[in-house]
UniProtKB/TrEMBL annotation:
Its EC number is 1.-.-.-. Its cofactor is FMN. Transmembrane segments: none annotated. Residues 1-100 form the FAD-binding FR-type domain. This is Phenoxybenzoate dioxygenase subunit beta. InterPro entries: 2Fe-2S_ferredoxin-like_sf, 2Fe-2S_ferredoxin-type, 2Fe2S_fd_BS, Beta-grasp_dom_sf, DmmA-like_N, FAD-bd_FR_type, FNR_nucleotide-bd, MRET. Residues 233-318 form the 2Fe-2S ferredoxin-type domain. SUPFAM superfamilies: 2Fe-2S ferredoxin-like, Ferredoxin reductase-like, C-terminal NADP-linked domain, Riboflavin synthase domain-like. Keywords: 2Fe-2S, Dioxygenase, Flavoprotein, FMN, Iron, Iron-sulfur, Metal-binding, Oxidoreductase. GO terms for molecular function: 2 iron, 2 sulfur cluster binding; dioxygenase activity; metal ion binding. PROSITE patterns: 2FE2S_FER_1, 2FE2S_FER_2, FAD_FR.
Amino acid sequence: MIPVVVRNCVEEARNVVRLVLGSQDGSALPPYEAGAHIDLHLPSGLIRQYSLCRMQSDPQYYEIAVLKDSLSRGGSREVHTLNIGDELNISAPRNHFSLAKTKRKALLIAGGIGVTPLLPMAQQLHKMGLPFEFHYCAKSPDTAAFAKALESGSFSDKMHFHYSQVPTSGRMDVVNVLSQNAMDGELYVCGPADFITHIIQQAENLGWPDERVHREYFTAPDLAEGDVDNTAFKVKIASTGELLDVAEDQTIFQVLESNGVFVPVSCESGVCGTCQTGVISGTPDHRDVFLTDKEHTEGKLIMPCCSRSKSPVIELDL
């Protein structure tokens, strides 16, 4: 837990606020690489994950930008009530969405507030002199956070803006953009769940290798009716051999917690990766969007906050 103070609040776009968080004593905050996020511990007790939206120009400050979501469970609405001088706690930065260690051209595709982790990626790529192309999709310029700065910034020649509600702009031609980079690119996509799913599906259709497609969800996609079939099963704790019953209406995490088995959990929807746990035996029923398709197929990891078991017993490395 790192104590910070809200040093500034800036309206970056309609319903988007940027917060500048500074260390309470003026000391340097832990460094991070592009794509990192922090846990924000809100006064109400809610914990939410937000991407760090700029590379640090001063080591005592972090910046996040938060969209007030109409479907918010309370976190984004509370962030928008914060004021300069409010004291909060945050986690150290974690990064599950880092740039690949390659000199391939990077294709950055942002949907709305999904621009936040991609902006520092662009800053880092520009600083390193590596090739990249940045496509920013939004409804209109007034809903696109950082758009004006990106239009006139140091890598404005790499920017492409696609506004679905502006007739002279229109939606991005996904197939065309992906086709031009399929043979030698690294794809990074972030935005609404359905947006990411569509981009990834098109990339798969065009032959993009899974290991060159990188994504970060802020929320899990909605499961279609009929896709969810919850059945009861047992969880075995490898260190003790204890068997615990997981009912149809319970998650693995809930059962572990009620029986005194600690697993760190944050998002509770399979997005952030905090609760990632090893699987010793059994077949996971993956409900997360954090693990890759390859990791899902291998079945060696599970997100107990949301995923279940296809086998009568699943043994976890706990």
